[in-house]
User: Fold this.
Amino acid sequence: MKITSNNYNNIYSGSTKKNNKDSLISDNKSAITLNSLKTLVKNNIEKLHEMGFKGKNVNIAIIDSGIYPHPDFKDRIKFTKDFSASKKITDEIGHGTHVAGIIAGNGKISDGKITGTAPEANIFAFKASNQNEAIKAVKWIIDNNDKYNIKVINMSLGVTQSKPFKQDAWAKLTDLAWKKGIFVTVAAGNDGPNKHTITSPGTVKSVITVANLDDKGTPNADDDSISESSSRGPTKYDKINKPDISAPGTDITAALAPKSDFAFDPSIEKIDSNKDKKPDYVKISGTSMASPFIAGIAADMIQAFPNVTNDQIKEAMMNTAVNIPNIPYYIQGKGIIDAYNTYLYLKNILEKKSV
Assistant:
């Protein structure tokens, strides 16, 4: 299946439309007295960056619609490989470029105003337009990782789960990548608000599956919730508790690929940061945008603690997440990512092990 601008959501977990409704079920009594949770996430990431942890020299694989060499990260695109029929890594849709910006954008064009969560990380771009191509990309990474030392895989894509884990080739390979020590983050999907809608390979127990936080564009946390479109757990066949965690995914500004579908879509907001009448960034929503937040933070942790394991990073992220009151696990997972406390948690457990 060739992905076009009208049907890219069949594999890519991004959406240009914001849904303001939220499904809330009261089963949690914890309280939040903070400003917008998106602001909390941003501030805690900035703390890491001020400490010098920006994912420097950490190799991140992005399996997506391709990549445009945007000035915010083009010098750190270390490797590209196209598994699609197009036979060119260029990003005709714009999805993969936007995801790359959320992870590794350094804000060069915007004077540092629009940056990713790991603005010094290296990008390994793998183009895939359907499930079979994505499977080939994961397999290639596993088979070649002794040479390339990829530490993180981001998959802001997925398909409706049609079979249990043991019969799902994409899920099994994704699990193998985790077992090989690679930190894998996957978008939960945009098939909410019904239960059992987590898309594969976000259905894999080992990986970290990410839901979409919507702050409604207001400065207060009172109305923050999980987007109605964000897929819900548990998984359909294996009843695994998913998602694992949530991150900002609504109205996220990041790199724009010029001449892509996103660039020509009049319904999508573009940002001309340097006032040259050529948009540099685009605002998109979906779990596709939430997943790369986590990928970049994982790279920051790997820079800070070079010997940390993927299991330890996931444990730290989940045990320090900020729970949103009145929203159950199957919608938000453990809660909203807290990058700085993830760092402190890892620092504590790793120091204890070294004694």
Observations:
- The chain has nine helices and eleven strands.
